[in-house]
Amino acid sequence: MININHHFKINLYNLKSFLFICFISFSIYGEAQVNWTNDGDSYFKLEKNQLLTYTLPDKVVKTVISKEQLTPIGKSKPLEVAHFSFSLDQQKVLLFTNTKRVWRLNTKGDYWVFNFKTNSLTQLGKGLPPSSLMFAKFSPDGNTLAYVSDNNLYSEDYESGKIQPLTSNGTVAIINGTFDWAYEEEFACRDGFRWSPDSKSIAYWQIDASAIKKFYMINNTDSIYSQLVPLEYPKVGETPSACKVGVVDISDIKTTWMNIPGDASQHYLVRMEFIPGTNNLLIQQLNRKQNNSKLFLVNAINGSAKVIQEESDEAWVDLFQTGNPYKIDYTNNFNFMNESKCILWASEKDGWRHLYQVSLEGKPEVLITKGDYDVIDLKYINQKEGYVYYLASPANATQKYLYRTKLNGKGKSELLSPESLMGSHDYSFSSNGTYAEHTFSNYFTPSTKEFITVANQKSLTEGESIVNNLKNLEKKSNTEFFTITTTDNIQMDGWMVKPSNFDPKKKYPVVFYVYSEPAGTTVTDTYGADQNGLYMGDMAEDGYIYISLDNRGTPAPKGREWRKSIYRKIGVININDQAMAAKEILKWDFIDPERVAVWGWSGGGSATLNLMFQHPEIYKTGIAIAAVANQLTYDNIYQERYMGLPQENKEDFIAGSPITYAKNLTGNLLYIHGTGDDNVHYQNADMLLNELIKYNKQFQFMPYPNRSHGIYEGAGTSLHLATLYTNYLKMHCPPGGR
Prior knowledge:
Elements (H helix, E strand, L loop, with lengths): L1 E2 L5 E3 L23 E2 L5 E6 L2 E6 L4 E6 L15 E6 L5 E9 L7 E8 L4 E4 L9 E6 L5 E6 L2 E6 L5 E3 L8 E3 L4 H7 L5 E3 L5 E8 L5 E6 L7 E6 L9 E8 L5 E3 L9 E8 L5 E8 L4 E8 L5 E8 L7 E3 L12 E3 L4 E6 L6 E6 L6 E2 L7 E8 L4 E6 L8 E6 L7 E2 L8 E6 L5 E8 L2 E9 L4 E2 L6 H8 L5 E7 L5 E7 L10 E6 L25 H4 L2 E6 L9 H5 L8 H13 L5 E11 L1 H12 L6 E5 L10 H8 L2 H11 L11 E7 L8 H12 L5 E5 L12 H16 L6
Parallel strand pairs: 41-42, 41-43, 43-44, 44-45, 45-46
Antiparallel strand pairs: 1-31, 2-26, 3-4, 4-5, 5-6, 7-8, 8-9, 9-10, 11-12, 12-13, 13-14, 15-17, 16-17, 17-20, 18-19, 20-21, 22-23, 23-24, 24-25, 27-28, 28-29, 29-30, 31-32, 32-33, 33-34, 35-36, 36-37, 37-38, 39-40, 40-42
């Protein structure tokens, strides 16, 4: 059996979907999956600086590490633990504390080990800079630990505490055991090393960003002289960082480089794992355009490599990565089965996202899931019983349900989620597959959880049962889901929140919330998806109609054609879909066509600008935050994946960039950007401002000094941003029915 609980499968290109609602700094742990014990009958939980276990089915609580045990010798307070992970035998636990942010996430900090056998607490990395350790993890035998500090890889013997540098050339540009900005942002690659099954060696990525040009941000506030903030950032069209994989022997500290064919600066190495029980690695390589994927079987001793699977797409090959990108401890990027003779693989090659068995021994692939639907998320593989459990929603792309089917590809898809619970489900399976934590939400039911027995999908207790308590959980909601068909015969999903005292005889202002790019959807049947995180007050109470729509190109489970129709057309096809849908909505009797606003963040900010500039006859007011105004300024991994190479089709980048149409502005525009944005650089604002000024277009602009892409740092920032947003919307798109 394989537990996907800690390493659940996601569409990697949904990662940036968090960005367009990035009003606050996200914790890397967020609402973590359940940390199950090895036997699968209990789970660990941190509560008030104590580590507890809850044993099912009765949830018997036991303290396994007390506050006193978490208090270092000579200290009066216990460690403030942000995260924990175990040795393979669960006799030792790694404790992550004093964390610091790197790019998006707090991936640096201090690590301590608590030993259950000796009841001792030991700090790792003594002598290295405080809060500099990254991705510490035990060797499989539990005797050695490895971690990264200042872009070098280290091992540390647990008993003696001896620290051994495994690399010594780490710099800002030569990065060992972790990744540069672009790899982290666009591939969710952070933890860049893997222990061998025999605990004798470590495979690690090395990124060479020395040829990457520096982008300079300017800090004007922390001293009387400005300070340059350099960032190795590969812009679209620029050569990527070179990448290679080495295997270092712990005994002699010698690295053997893996011989992966192809120019290292024209390919990406996006996944790498030791095949369990062997000295072989499985490595996935993408070409620069990301429309060709190869799986290499690599001998970790001599570095020889051979292709065992290859896939191409006319647009891009979707990358599916196992592991929560907002946690730092995911390492199992491949799902090995049948004594590691094959892997479970996701592909869209038949037009839908399906699961396949891919042999590592050259045998034919086996299609496991079949039909005109997408597998949304892989949850659990039960090899003993021959089933795979996954999320899908064949009938409604805004929802998610648990299904299972036979691993041999001969079974039918079987719905397991309760039919009475219409909405979005998620599951965290126990290690043995006996239990699962079940989470449910829809637009009128806040997220709620229960522990269930997988065999019958029933709650362990009547009092915890979601089905039994559903009426008590439901909240009043003004939200309505709808579909709308445009003149181009494109059917789009949407939600709408009507004013609290809605009168169909009156006309109301409408506010459209957009994202629209391949990195995320906005129309999901989940609680709170319809909430405007910036508006101060209640939009429904104040008399606004609030709407969001998912256009072609968004990663909804509607098949490959829906998702990849946007290839080389970002800023064109998504904008046309949104505008044509808005035109249909403006025909509704209760919509005031003179009070139409649109807003979005990041990619949604770009869409807002494009809608305001390309369709000024529809959108009268726009609020764009942290937008890409010029596609030629963004990073190469993201932009080239969806748009191609500007050396070959630069006209597509120009056609999709808001700056191209800035001269058409006629409505009210508020543009907002942080000057310290390392993701969508502030230069986008300067470029757009110049273009608007050139054509004497009047607008309002708000820069936030030194704030990043989320615009949350600094005293009063979030309140100021929300106040600015609300006041502008009320002034230029007055609320209330008329």
